[in-house]
Amino acid sequence: MIKLPEDLMPEYIVGNVIDVLKKMPENSINCVVTSPPYWGLRDYGIPPVIWGGKPRCKHEFTEEVKKGKTGGECKLEGAGKQMTEARYLEDTEHGFCKKCGAWRGQLGLEPTPQLYIDHLVMIFNEVKRVLRPDGVLWLNLGDSYAGSGGIDGVPDDWDSISTSNRQKYSKKKPNKKTSEIGLKPKDLIGIPWMAAFALRDRGGWYLRSGVVWEKPNPMPESVKDRPTNCHEFIFELTKSNKYYYDYIAIQEDSVDPESFTGRRPRSAGQMDGVDPDNYKFHGSVQEDGSLTSGQLYPKKNKRSVWRMTTKPYPEAHFAFFPPELPETCILAGTPVKTCGICGEPWKRILKKSKVYDHVTTAPGKHKEDSPYSSMIGDGEGTHDIRHGVATITQTIGWKATCEHDDDTGKAIVLDPFAGSGTTLQVARELCRRSIGIDIGENYRELALKRDAFKMPQKDLFSYGQG
């Protein structure tokens, strides 16, 4: 049995994800944030794994080898150089067992999308076992196209091939994906939603949200017959219908500071006996009466489109999270405080109060039932109007949800495809414990260069305690 980390130093385990997960205690993880290898995208140069079949079978695999591509001289150094060379120079071995039907190969290089989905279901069945009943899984997946020149054998220059040659090519080397699920070259496959529905229907997960991750700086594409892809999906899946979700921790600003410059309230025209042009709303007023800048409204619930810019990594890892992505997931899916005895989360103590942009004095009688503002009259023909009434929610403390009244625990974050360790780094910065799993030793070398693995064991961060 794998021992869970007792401090904030991340634990990085090299091995097959299913084998490692089976050694972890059940109901022990608060939150999972991960991004598995996408289907048909690339060869990561990691050892092949045997999937399914009979455990005691003396496998006899068919030999299917997809030759690697040469990518020119590699100018990278260290682990990044090794992984890049593996991507372009090594062959990919995969095949089925003639006896039991097991498949040997890398996750993401399966011959069909359905087999890839089957393997994801196998993996996340084990993830579900180790996740607490109130835990949350955040799963990032990207899509791919049929006939893109990947593992399905369709050539890269498909668009330039004549119709007759396409038919000859298809007869000579049929597309396995097309024969199984009716895909045609250039079809968008829909891998993310295929996986989400399979986890919901076959894995028993609750599919709570399909977040769109918008990338302002997407990878350039040379396509001329469709828009350039600039988004991926992040699915929120839970083990039960009641789970931990801190909506306050990830709230957004309702409007930006400049949005209300020069505007009047919607109900300005309803003011009895008051000229709406006599005063401005929602901003700072200068001596000449002009409005300078708007004021922030209260926070709003996090929306389902997250605009986050990808950022380069000096070690040239193929793909990694922008830190804002796991930060958002961890803040929403893990408590700031947990019980050190039973692991139950502490909950916020909230205080709600009303605030106003400003108050103006206007002629007229006080009206108790005013629909547009809170008015206080002095009985002498004038009254104060409180403009921009809003409700602010503040956290004034925390309280235990169990009988122990212990707050020494720390939430545990798991990334079963840890890669270069971005999730682990962010988890430590947020004062959470973390575990990363990856089958490639090269990725562990990248992760160990991060600050999360270099800092002392004691808690050096305070951001996560806010």
Structure summary:
By secondary structure, this protein is an alpha/beta fold.
Q: Provide mean pLDDT, rounded.
A: 75
The DSSP helix count reads: 9
Strand content: 15-25%
Quick one: overall form? globular
Return the CATH architecture of the domain at 11-45 and 111-144 and 189-251 and 314-345 and 403-465.
3-Layer(aba) Sandwich
- Which structural class should the secondary elements be placed in? alpha/beta
User: What's the name of the CATH homologous superfamily of the domain at 11-45 and 111-144 and 189-251 and 314-345 and 403-465?
Assistant: Vaccinia Virus protein VP39
What is the number of beta strands? 21
The largest sheet, given as strand count, sense and whether it forms a barrel, is: 8 strands, mixed
CATH class of the domain at 11-45 and 111-144 and 189-251 and 314-345 and 403-465: Alpha Beta
Q: CATH topology of the domain at 11-45 and 111-144 and 189-251 and 314-345 and 403-465, what is it called?
A: Rossmann fold
The residue fraction in helices comes out at: 10-25%
Query: How are helices and strands ordered from N to C?
Result: EHEEEHEEHEHHHEEEEEEEHEEEEEEHEH
Rounded radius of gyration (Å): 28 Å
- Strands across the major sheet, in which order? 1-21-20-2-7-9-8-14
Give unreliable regions as ranges.
65-92, 149-179, 257-296, 369-376, 458-466
* CA-CA gap between termini: 34 Å
Structure, described:
The chain has 466 residues and is an alpha/beta fold. It is 19% helix and 24% strand. Among the domains are: 11-45 and 111-144 and 189-251 and 314-345 and 403-465, Vaccinia Virus protein VP39 (Rossmann fold, 3-Layer(aba) Sandwich), CATH 3.40.50; 255-296 and 349-396, no CATH class. It has 9 helices and 21 strands. A hairpin with a 6-residue loop joins strand 5 and strand 6 (103-105).
